[in-house]
Amino acid sequence: MNRSILSILFLLGHTPAFSQVDYKVQIEPIFYDKCSACHTSGGSSGGLDLTSYSTLMAGGNSGASIIAGDNQNSLLWKRINDGSMPPSSNDVITSNVELVKKWINEGALEKPSIQKNEITQIDNFSIPEDSMKTLILEANDLLGNAVTFEVKSSNQNINISLVSDTLTIKPKSDWNGFATITAYASGSTWRDSSIFIATVVPVNDAPKPFFWNTVKSDTINITKDNLTSTYGLEWTESVDVDGDSILYILFASTGPSSKVEVYRTSNTTHLIPYSDFLQKTFEQLSVATSATVYFTLSAYDGTDSVKISRGDRELYINRYEYLSVDSQGIPDKFALHDNYPNPFNPSTQIRFDLPKMTSATLTIYNMLGQKVKTFYMQNTPAGYQSITWNATSDLDVPVAAGVYLYQLQTEEFVKTKKMILLK
Hints:
It contains seven helices and 24 strands. With 423 residues, the chain is α+β, with helices and mostly antiparallel strands. Helix 2 crosses helix 5 (94-105).
């Protein structure tokens, strides 16, 4: 036998089976020709209606007439095979009986399942910006041979990674838009493709990191003569890749208290007058000669914010010389006076006298003896002093109404008094 003929026979024998019988073209005419007299809608014999695919598959009074894939247990086929249907000498010819058998064993499909060498189509999809998607490519080769894949993108902002049949799609950082992607499948004698669109949906990006240009720790001395001087804070620019405007929010605190917002600007510098430090930093430390202020900063784009890198900036403020010039009269002994007003809400003033420069501590206790608030005053100059307490703890948390004790302590003097907070 000719080798080419042998090859063709081999290929035919090893080609996977697939349906070639068409119900509409080949099977339905058989039933119309031989069975329509008895099995029509409205007067179907045995409840079996053969005028459409759906009514045929629904069966009749005896149950299913067709069992897909199993002609031996399909009642309709058995009836036309043994000649009991149609009930006359007008039997279904043998070739048509075999055709119905083949159709049933192929799955009794309404439409033929035509298989071919092809890639499985990929649907369009969307992913968020700065994310990725992984797909498994699939293809059918009728001879069962190996299939190779190839993928191309219309947009260079989409990175394509293909390992065997695994496709990874990853857009470039901060990019959004869409790309047309083509996936190819190739067999030994064929090539097919699937074209789909990958849409990268924009998301808001937080501002980029930024840094201080101000030294980490600094000191200023406030006197009567330099109140118009300013202290400058500087930082680098934070960039927003979405093009949003950046607002810088400055936060500050004195000592261990929590930071509060003090300023907003679109610039990368902020100047603070020395007079502001006197007014705001020492608001509750009216007799303190010095204090440390801690600054931090956030960049805000209207949705997200990022904190400045490399930690807080610390500013030590010394106003000893200012207080020395400003003091009026010197008491001749230590004294702790009654607070005013008392009872009070929301704040009260506590006055005390220092006959000489000294370090002092004013501590407020609740009636359980627990410390609530402590004012540390290092090297406080001699004079008539006062502190304002706004009924908050060291953590800046408002305290409950009730009776509190306040105690002034120096190296040479200790005195305790009582006050009442109303709410």
